[in-house]
């Protein structure tokens, strides 16, 4: 009978849908999310497009070879004799820009930078996705632990109510104390049921981050990281300036604008291209009355030429293009400095928050241990009548608040640690 009651209590404590579930670790969640994320799929396609564009054939450096042919047929009617003319003229043409102010070489480097920028955008989205999944997963663990805390309080309140009810039946207790214990138990049970819903909603939030459409419940196998390493601000700043993905992308943008300036300057140089072609014509004439006069002729033509062009004056358009390109390049340098300043400021805030939250975790642990010990001692005192129900209820609530603060403190410090890994460019390697 006792075993059956224990199993029933365990069944009630477990959240709805937790029985016979699929297990999910944090690493599995990250892998699943990176495969299913909608925005990441789109960004990866953009990266493929930038890779396809990064070819010499897309810069105009390679020759253009074309083929064409024409077929014509004519009829001539006169007083002596009618005849029909057939003509076929295939032609092969070549056009090749030999020199265009180094624009092809500059454009190729530009496409390389665009491909790197696309990879950088993918990396940023990967980092954001990992951070979102880690946060959602840790929140699920916190909500699950809160379910256990509320279940513990609910069971304690139920035991207290049963004792008060039994004492009342024996005539050793008042109806007032019994109703007070019942009210506390019902209140704790209501809070427990609400927390179960909070946990289930956190799982749904995690499923959305993983790109899972089904209302799937998981058994989480990874706990919240308990190691809280010590960082130095100087090391974190060095990592930020060298590894931050957003800053790397800004450097690429700056390089792209430098390429635009070089392209604008290349318009001051002449352009040289070669063109040529080979054509062949077959001409056949057929007479309607006297086939002896039929004739066939064919001839070929080969041509090749060089074309040198240089723009002497175009209303100052080249000068204006260079000036605008230089101004935009200077603006990019200012934006880079601003981004560095902003990121360093964010790093300082996150680092300070992390250091404080580490101390808060230690304090929260001590407070929960003290509150737990106090509640255990108070339960014994309640049984002996050393304290009344009001005092015991206050001690219960104090333990509940201490447990909640501990879980929140752990969650907050891990969030700050993840933020540090994200801003210093190490979140992909870490997770």
From TrEMBL:
Entry keywords, A to Z: Cell outer membrane, Membrane, Signal, Transmembrane, Transmembrane beta strand, Transport
Gene3D superfamilies from the UniProt entry: Outer membrane efflux proteins (OEP)
InterPro entries registered for this protein in UniProt: OMP_efflux (IPR003423), TolC-like (IPR051906)
Q: Name one GO cellular component term.
A: cell outer membrane
Name the principal localization, coarsely classed.
membrane
The record's subcellular location field reads: Cell outer membrane
Which GO molecular function annotations are given, in alphabetical order?
Answer: efflux transmembrane transporter activity; porin activity
Signal peptide feature range = 1-20
* Pfam family membership, one: OEP
Sequence similarity? Belongs to the outer membrane factor (OMF) (TC 1.B.17) family.
Protein name in UniProt: TolC family protein
This chain's source organism reads Plebeiibacterium marinum
């Amino acid at each position: 009978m006792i075993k059956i009651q224990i199993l029933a209590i365990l069944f009630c404590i477990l959240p709805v849908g937790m029985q016979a579930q699929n297990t999910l670790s944090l690493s599995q969640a990250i892998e699943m999310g990176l495969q299913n994320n909608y925005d990441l799929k789109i960004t990866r396609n953009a990266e493929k497009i930038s890779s396809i564009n990064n070819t010499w054939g897309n810069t105009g450096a390679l020759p253009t070879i074309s083929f064409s042919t024409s077929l014509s047929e004519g009829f001539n009617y006169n007083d002596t004799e009618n005849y029909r003319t057939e003509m076929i003229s295939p032609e092969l043409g070549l056009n090749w820009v030999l020199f265009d102010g180094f624009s092809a070489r500059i454009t190729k480097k530009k496409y390389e930078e665009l491909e790197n920028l696309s990879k950088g955008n993918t990396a940023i989205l990967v980092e954001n996705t990992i951070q979102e999944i880690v946060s959602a997963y840790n929140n699920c663990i916190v909500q699950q632990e809160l379910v256990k805390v509320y279940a513990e309080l609910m069971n304690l309140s139920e035991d207290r109510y049963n004792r008060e009810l039994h004492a009342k039946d024996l005539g050793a207790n008042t109806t007032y104390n019994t109703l007070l214990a019942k009210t506390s138990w019902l209140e704790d049970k209501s809070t427990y049921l609400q927390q179960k819903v909070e946990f289930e909603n956190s799982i749904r939030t995690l499923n959305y981050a993983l790109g899972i459409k089904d209302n799937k419940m998981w058994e989480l196998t990874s706990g919240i990281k308990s190691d809280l390493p010590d960082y130095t601000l100087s090391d974190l700043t060095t990592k930020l300036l060298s590894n931050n993905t957003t800053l790397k992308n800004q450097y690429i943008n700056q390089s792209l604008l430098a390429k635009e300036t070089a392209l604008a300057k290349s318009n001051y140089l002449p352009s040289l291209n070669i063109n040529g072609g080979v054509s062949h014509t077959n001409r056949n004439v057929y007479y309607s009355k006297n086939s002896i006069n039929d004739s066939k002729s064919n001839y070929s033509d080969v041509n090749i030429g060089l074309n040198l062009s240089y723009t002497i004056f175009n209303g100052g358009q080249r000068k204006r293009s260079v000036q605008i390109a230089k101004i935009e390049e200077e603006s990019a340098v200012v934006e880079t400095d601003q981004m560095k300043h902003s990121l360093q400021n964010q790093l300082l805030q996150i680092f300070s928050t992390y250091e404080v939250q580490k101390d808060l975790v230690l304090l929260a642990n001590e407070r929960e241990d003290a509150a737990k010990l106090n509640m255990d001692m108070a339960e014994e005192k309640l049984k002996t009548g050393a304290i009344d129900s009001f005092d015991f209820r206050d001690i219960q609530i104090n333990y509940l608040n201490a447990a909640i603060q501990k879980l929140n403190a752990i969650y907050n410090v891990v969030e700050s640690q993840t933020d540090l890994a994200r801003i210093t460019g190490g979140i992909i390697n870490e997770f």
